[in-house]
Here is the input.
Amino acid sequence: MLESNSKALRPGTVLHIKKIGESAINHIDFGEENGHEWVDLGLSVKWATCNVGASSPSDYGSYFAWGEISIKENYGRSNYKWGQAKYNRADGRLFLDMSDDAARTNWGGRWRMPTDEEFDELESNCTYTWTTQGGKNGYKVTSRKNGNSIFLPAAGFRADTSVYSAGSYGYFWSSFLYTGNPTLAYGLYFDSSNFGMYGSRRYYGLPVRPVTE
Here is the structure.
């Protein structure tokens, strides 16, 4: 993100001045959108520092079924909002509508859930260090473009009324339907030795890490 007017900077923003020939541009590495912090990893979007519902980068935050915007007690097939009524491939909807996007509806502003391509971009342009932050296991994801980083906690997932695999596995929703099987949606998956995309049952509860333009 390029800013030419320093008056637009929020308090606490870290500012770097980079010389390009005779000119200089202000490059903002950290900032806020609608009250929530983001980090510039030098990619096509800015990544939030925390999950939706979290109070710190290491906090697991809230778990959402894909296409649902509120938390609930039970994450099962029988009480999943959409079933095959929407996002069923036949209706042509491959990406979540903004009204069904947990990042946009909970955080507002320009926040939204990442696309599968944005997760691929994150995977391709960063290095990953399995570590502990705030007492929680997860990955420090560091940009190879500018050295900035985010922390993704291994928050596990929710099924029925329980949380599974917290501390060992991480799962994060994308906004993209798994086209080979519309009962699934794409998400980021990782453990201490793997990091990549996968298809998850849409009624499972997964964390959401928002992005903004």
